[in-house]
Input
Amino acid sequence: MKKLVFVLIFIGAAFGVFAQQSKYSNIDEDVKKLGPLNNFNVAVIADTITEKFADNEQKARAIFYWIANNIQIDPKGTRQNDDKNILPEKVIALRKATPLGFSLLVQEMCSAANIRCLSVDGYVKNYAAEINESADEKNYSWNVIQLGQSPETWYYIDAARASGYLDKKSTVFTKQFTGEYFFADRKLFNLAYFPDNNAWQLGGGIKSVKDYYALPVFNNYSFALGLGKPTPITGYIKTSIKKPVVFTFPINDVIDIKNISLIMGDEKKQPKPEAMNFVNSGSIISFTYQFKKEDSFPLRIVADGKDILQYMVVVTE
Output
């Protein structure tokens, strides 16, 4: 039985990478008008939401959008690691699913639309405390879709994270659509996810589960920003009170970030954000921070109020 030991708490994106979203806005609007399509089976829903679109990319977007906006993450199934309701017809009946259920539904609807799509199992991190703490078993599922014959025509899809997120206790689902999980940026996806089969690491990337868990945690808004490889790339930062740490990360140049803040410490203590004096040189954000006291704590980097990266920090004298 597949264990789904995870909590989806990523803060969703308020706006996306504009070019990517405008490309699909007409498709999204057409599918939105169709509504929930209650009382139909998987095949009929797939036909209904894809019938007016000409090519497989458009059809795949329609399937992604409908699922992400009409299926919710199942808090109880997630909390209890329950995979008994993962089959597509069951997901459609219940209108909720674990990520495995999401990925199997995407696969089934794409198959109905004659699109090659596979469900991929692997690993994700959600908290800074997971850095350097490799999971004992796979804890997540997503999809890859093929639109052509070359390796470059495979694409990533994650309809579960696109749908919204769960709270820390995995009891409450908050609906918040994030469109950038459709045909997600490969380089960023390969930093944020790790498949159990390297064949599904499109374009190559991290070599082992251990190496993956050594990376920072990438939140939803990193996808909306088009985040590139950050510095530090190691998720565990060991520094001293005398040594400034330089943070840099590329972003999509159409987004104007107004504020970068650090939040240090456990969320239970409700730490206040500390605003950074940052530089945006073209499409690269950079700032330097010198930690003030000895301690060890999780660190969140926040852009305009939305989490993008998490680290674990150990500060010595």
